Amino acid sequence: MASPLFPVFADLRDREVLVVGGGTVALRKTIALREAGAAVRVGAPVLNAELSAMASRGEIHHLPGHFAPHWLDGAWFVVAATDDDAVNRAVADEGQARRIWVNVVDDARASSVQIPARVDRGPLQVAISSGGAAPMLARHVREMLETALDASLGQLAELLGRERGRIRARFPQLGARRKFFERLLRGPVPALLCRRQHLAAEREFIAQLHAETSAPHGSVALVGAGPGDPGLLTLRALRVLNEADVILHDRLVSDEVLQLVRRDAQRIEVGKQAGNHHATQAQIHALMLEHARAGKRVVRLKGGDPFVFGRGGEELEVLRAAGIDFEVVPGITAALACAAYAGVPLTHRDHAQSVRFVTAHHKEPHDGGDAGEPDWRALALERQTLAVYMGVAGLERFSTRLIEHGRAASTPFAIVENGSRANQRVIVGALSELAQRAREHDVQSPALLIVGEVASLAGSLHWYGAPPLRDASAVAEAA
Ligand code: SAH
């Protein structure tokens, strides 16, 4: 077993660094070295266009001609980036003889220093190395960290760097300082930076710095979990799920998504049973308030997108009224996901210029609204697509009304049941036979109905799961 490498972060500001080579690899290394503030000289018979431009702007110094040992005079560090092994080795040998650290690009054995894969968040740098054993693995880990670390960490590191003196003055003892950092990192400052509210973040930082003891600060993130396939979560949703203390989730949220939640977070299912919506919604509000007030980071996790038939607006109003911090993370709504996973483009130059998201359920009078009829004439207009949520119950009535108000009985539909999930089914047919087809195939919730000419494209554009189901006689005809 070779010994592992010893990681260091080098301060190259205004230090002489030699890059040997004039091509794209040399350019890449030169740019990175200059970002670190190094004084770079580039040795090569010819420089490529970008390097030449840098040289003529005085950003680098060009050493023309073939490699000569005196190029290393005064250098702290050397990068050999030519495509000629013999030259690279000569550079490495010369560096070795002079005890100057050398990196030979893509040649760990010839190098005395390796340049790690890194995740760059301003002053915060994460470097990853496999010591040359498995560069692909290092790259893979880098990608994982890129996903996990929010861009705003750079701003947080900058803020803490600027305020270092004040923090030390306020908390001279290491123990107290550590406690302060723990509170700060769990508190609203990082969240405010994520939300690009820099001034508010600075103000909050100062408030926390001077607070005697700060009470734990709760918040609620209203997060869209998408339709089921965890691959359709946003990166932001994943990060928020990783930091949650309490998750209040709907029944619609898939198990695969729930498996990504921080292990020791408390999970509470607040699935609504048909019939007692009203009571349950009030209970959800109460649960959100209770946990946020106890200082918890609460995630209110909803299927699809929280603002599409999700009552997300009402929940935010409650939080706003209670003065609780919140953020909203959008999700992929069922209409977009089901259409994509069924091969149904919601708009199409030849068939549909607009799409409507509608729900087959309407606010009941006891919900405080009127159960008024939808505008059937508008819904029945041609050359548009309807994406109908919560459509399993009233399908008969829905198709009859649309046809009565002028939509052709032959208009294609597609029902997508369990869209994007392993058990997805797609049922297609003509509008006049909608309810019958749904009954034949025993369609269950959750299912989304798509009505419009585009639905017929599912037959040729399907790519996920089983091909669309038709009625038994059409299957016989096709055979
Ligand atoms: N906020 C959610 C919608 C909530 S209403 C969103 O943006 O998707 C619930 C309805 O959404 C269901 O009755 C069904 O019509 C639809 N739906 C949600 N997930 C679905 C899925 N995976 N497949 C099919 N339909 C789904």
What would the CATH topology of the largest domain be? Methyltransferase, Cobalt-precorrin-4 Transmethylase, Domain 2
Number of domains: 4
Number of strands: 17
Uncertain runs = 364-369, 475-479
Q: N-to-C terminal Cα separation, in Å? A: 64 Å
Task: Tell me what the structure shows.
This protein has helices spanning 24-35, 49-56, 85-98, 135-148, 153-162, 164-170, 174-186, 188-194, 198-210, 235-243, 255-258, 277-293, 312-322, 334-342, 376-379, 395-404, 434-440, 458-461, 472-478, and strands at 16-20, 39-44, 61-64, 77-80, 101-104, 117-121, 124-128, 219-224, 246-249, 266-269, 297-302, 325-329, 354-359, 384-389, 412-417, 425-430, 447-451. With 479 residues, the protein is α/β, with parallel strands linked by helices. It has four domains: 16-115, 3-Layer(aba) Sandwich (Rossmann fold), CATH 3.40.50.720; 152-210; 219-332, Tetrapyrrole methylase, N-terminal domain (Cobalt-precorrin-4 Transmethylase, domain 1, 3-Layer(aba) Sandwich), CATH 3.40.1010.10; 336-478, Tetrapyrrole methylase, C-terminal domain (Methyltransferase, Cobalt-precorrin-4 Transmethylase, Domain 2), CATH 3.30.950. The chain is globular and about 90 Å long. The relative contact order is 0.07. S-adenosyl-L-homocysteine binds next to helix 14 and strand 17.
Kindly summarize this structure in a few lines.
The protein has 479 residues and is of the alpha/beta class.
Question: Which properties best describe this structure?
Answer:
single chain; 479 residues; alpha/beta; Rossmann fold; Cobalt-precorrin-4 Transmethylase, domain 1; five-stranded parallel sheet; 19 helices; 18% strand; binds S-adenosyl-L-homocysteine
